[in-house]
Design brief:
The chain is α/β, with parallel strands linked by helices. The chain has two domains: 241 residues, Dihydropteroate synthase-like (TIM Barrel); 91 residues, 2-Layer Sandwich (Sulfite Reductase Hemoprotein, domain 1). It is built from eleven helices and 15 strands. The strands form three sheets. It has an eight-stranded parallel β-sheet. Strands 11-12-13-14-15 form a five-stranded mixed β-sheet, with helices on both faces. Strands 1-2 form a two-stranded antiparallel sheet. Helix 3 runs parallel beside helix 4 and helix 5 packs parallel to helix 6. It is elongated and about 75 Å long. The two termini are 26 Å apart. The relative contact order is 0.10. The structure holds iron/sulfur cluster. The site of iron/sulfur cluster has 12 residues, from loops.
C-alpha cells in the first residue's frame, strides 16, 4: 500500500488538507465572478456533484467584492484566483475569500507580495503558490529540463515566504505536459512539507483531458503525493468532479461507492450486460452511505469464461449464461436468477 507523503496541515475555510486528511476535490467556476447569481448557481451545481473547494477568477475589484455575496449562498470554501494586481488579493481577503491563489512571478515586485502576505497573515488565510509552466520565461530557453526550472522557481519563492515567516502555503506546479507535471511534483516532494494541489493544466476536452489528468494525477497519487486535486477540463466544470472521484477511488485514496468490475462483453455474452451494469451502478451510487468506507467489490461478468472466477473473487458477483446468472457472495454460489431480475437480486444482497 502506498504511504502518503507527510505534510503540514492547511485549513481552507474549514476544509483541512494535508497528509492527515482526505484528498480534497476542487474545481473552478467558469462564470464572470461579478455575476453573483450565475456564479452561485454554478458553485451549487459543483457542490451537489461532490466538489469540496471552489475557485473563482478575480479580475476586477467588483469581482473581489462579489465574493462576500457569493459566500452567503454556498457552503464550500472559496478560493480567489489573482494575477498581476495585488490589490485584488487584499480586496478578496477582506471580502471573505478562504484562500488566495497567486503566481508570485506575476506580481509587480516584492512589496506587492509582502502586502498580500500581511493581509493573509492577519486573517489566517492560506495562499496557494501556483506556478504554471507557461508563465516561466526560462522554460522556452532550452537551458534546463522544464520540471527542474519549475522546481527551482518554486524553491526560490518558498525561500522568500520562509524568510518572511509565512508557512500557510499550498503548492502547485502545473503544466499541460504530464511528464513535466510528474517530474516537478516528485522533485518538489522531497524539498518541503507543504501540501500539494495536483493538476494537469489546459488538459483539453474531456476525451483527452480525463486521460491526461488520470495519468498525471494518478501517477502522483500512487506515489503518495497530493493533498487536493483538480481535473481541468474544457467544458462544464461539473464534468470534472466524477473523474476526480474515480481517480481517488481507483488509486485507493478515497471511497465514493462500490468498485464495480464488469467485463467488456464479447460475442459470448447472451444478456444485455451494458444496461445491467449501468442500472446497477446508478442505483448503488445513489446511496451516499458508501462514502469513506472500504469499497465493496461487485463483479458483473458476461459468461462462463472469466465470469465465475471474477464473481467468486468479489464480495458479490454474478456470472451470466443464457438469460440467467449465477450469483456469488464471498466466493460461494448463492442462487441462480433470471437476467431481468439480476439488478434487483444483486441490490438485495448488496
Ligand atoms: S467474460 Fe465472457 S462475455 Fe465477458 S468479455 Fe470475457 S468472454 Fe466475453
Amino acid at each position: 500500500m502506498m504511504k502518503r507523503r507527510e505534510t503540514r496541515t492547511v485549513d481552507i475555510g474549514g476544509v483541512k488538507i494535508g497528509s492527515g486528511y482526505p484528498i480534497a476535490i476542487q474545481s473552478m467556476a467558469k462564470t464572470d465572478t461579478r455575476d453573483i447569481s450565475s456564479t452561485v448557481g454554478e458553485v451549487l451545481r459543483l457542490e451537489k456533484a461532490g466538489c469540496e473547494i471552489v475557485r473563482v477568477a478575480v479580475k476586477t475589484k467588483e469581482a473581489a467584492r462579489a465574493i462576500c455575496e457569493i459566500k452567503k449562498e454556498i457552503t464550500i470554501p472559496l478560493v480567489a484566483d489573482i494575477h498581476f494586481d495585488h490589490k485584488l488579493a487584499l480586496e478578496a481577503v477582506r471580502n471573505g475569500a478562504d484562500k488566495i491563489r497567486i503566481n508570485p512571478g506575476n506580481m509587480k515586485d516584492e512589496g506587492d507580495l509582502e502586502r498580500i502576505i500581511d493581509v493573509c497573515e492577519e486573517k489566517s488565510i492560506p495562499i496557494r503558490v501556483g506556478i504554471n509552466s507557461g508563465s516561466l520565461m526560462e522554460m522556452h530557453t532550452g537551458r534546463a529540463d522544464p520540471d527542474e526550472i519549475m522546481v527551482k522557481s518554486m524553491s526560490e519563492y518558498l525561500e522568500y515566504f520562509n524568510k518572511r515567516g509565512f508557512s500557510d502555503i499550498v503548492i502547485s506546479l502545473k503544466s499541460s505536459d504530464i511528464r513535466v507535471v510528474i517530474g516537478a511534483y516528485r522533485k518538489m516532494a522531497v524539498r518541503c512539507d507543504h501540501p500539494f494541489h495536483l493538476g494537469v493544466t489546459a488538459a483539453g476536452l474531456p476525451e483527452d483531458g480525463i486521460v491526461k489528468s488520470s495519468i498525471g494525477i494518478g501517477a502522483l497519487l500512487l506515489d503518495g503525493i497530493g493533498d487536493t486535486i483538480r481535473v481541468s477540463l474544457t467544458g462544464d466544470p461539473v464534468s470534472e468532479i466524477y473523474p476526480a472521484q474515480s481517480m481517488l477511488q481507483s488509486t485507493g485514496s478515497r471511497t465514493f461507492g462500490p468498485e464495480i468490475i464488469a467485463c467488456p462483453t464479447c460475442g459470448r455474452c447472451q444478456v444485455d450486460l451494458v444496461s445491467i451494469v449501468e442500472e446497477l451502478k446508478a442505483r448503488v451510487m445513489s446511496n451516499r452511505s458508501w462514502v469513506g468506507k472500504k469499497p465493496l467489490i461487485i463483479a458483473v461478468m458476461g459468461c462462463e469464461v472469466n465470469g465465475p472466477g471474477e464473481a467468486k473473487a468479489a464480495d458479490v458477483g454474478i456470472a451470466f449464461g443464457k438469460n440467467k446468472g449465477v450469483i456469488f457472495r464471498k466466493g460461494e454460489i448463492l442462487k441462480t436468477v433470471a437476467a431481468e431480475d439480476a439488478v434487483e437480486e444483486l441490490l438485495k444482497i448488496i
